[in-house]
Specification:
The protein is mainly β and 368 residues long. It starts with a helix and ends with a strand. Strand 3 and strand 4 form a beta hairpin. The strands form 7 sheets. It has a 4-stranded antiparallel sheet with strand order 1-28-27-26. It has a 4-stranded antiparallel sheet with strand order 2-3-4-5, with no helix packed on it.
Amino acid sequence: SRTTLDRMEDFEEDPRGSRGHRRSLSRSSGPGAIRGGGLGEFPRGLTRPLSPSPVRKVQFAHDERHLLACCSLDGTLSVCRLAPGPPAVLRRLRGHGAGVSDFAWSLSNDVLVSTSLDGTLRLWDPADGRCIRRVPDPDGAALLCCAFQPLNNNLTVVGSARHMVRVVNISTGKAARGGTGRLPGRVLALCFDSPGRVLWAGDDRGSVSSFLCDPGTGRLTKASRVLVQAGGSITSLSARAWASREAPDPSLLVNACPDRLLLFRVVEDEGGSGAPGLRLRRSFPTRHREQPLRSCFCPLMSFRQGACVGDEDASVHFFDVGRAARATVNTLQGHGAAVLAVAFNCDESLLASGDAAGTVIVWRRQHA
């Protein structure tokens, strides 16, 4: 409703504080709405400059429609409630001594983990904002990415600027025995497949590596490495198993700098070792030269195989990854800087996007 969109115009960090944050104007085909094909309309519902520093990631909590977290290079994380009531910043998580590069929600949403350029992993209670644990990198390296083991949320994987992938037991703060691996370059992106068996890692040398992960112990076994973009960087990885007869295989979505969004089919090694391989399925053009852009799959696959990506042209682009031609089906414009991060909530009713100027926009989906 129009009333709901009006209420989502601003965050209110403190109910007693002032409002009136800067708003950006959407360039659209009509007042407050962006027309697009197939994937519906996403009028901008909320615009909030959360920080003067770039927003490196936005992510909704698992199975939550209105609980959103963001991290910034100013060293903070923000936990936001979009509804019911006026949207508000519930908690501002402070403690890192440098920019926050990545974060992840636990499966039950009771813990946030974050990595920072200060070389630490931190555990947070998002309900009260407490830092539960601080885990320094043993090499003193900047930590650039993190991911929970989906079958064992006691285990978190972190990637470092010294080329290391390391599994950490967050209950003890100690590294898992055998839970380390080395990449050719700085580890910029991590993700698990849905079963939690395969860990994917991307680096700043343009390669994507895979590890077999024991969910009970955290032990990593190097499985494969594919040079995806020679001389480039892998800034985002998303794994997805497609529930479709046309594309039954697991897939990996890869942001490869410069200027490529790639969709790979994950294939099993013919030798029977269980090591996964990658077979290129689609390539989509993006403007990606300098920023650590992120992309994501659309969570609902009932009628379309969708992917969403931020762009250095300050737009958000939607692709139908099932199409070999004319794959772009929608574009959202409204940001004033490169869009670094995008995320859907669980039912695709909301999309959040964060940019290099520190602004987060939440878009509400409206079906035609």
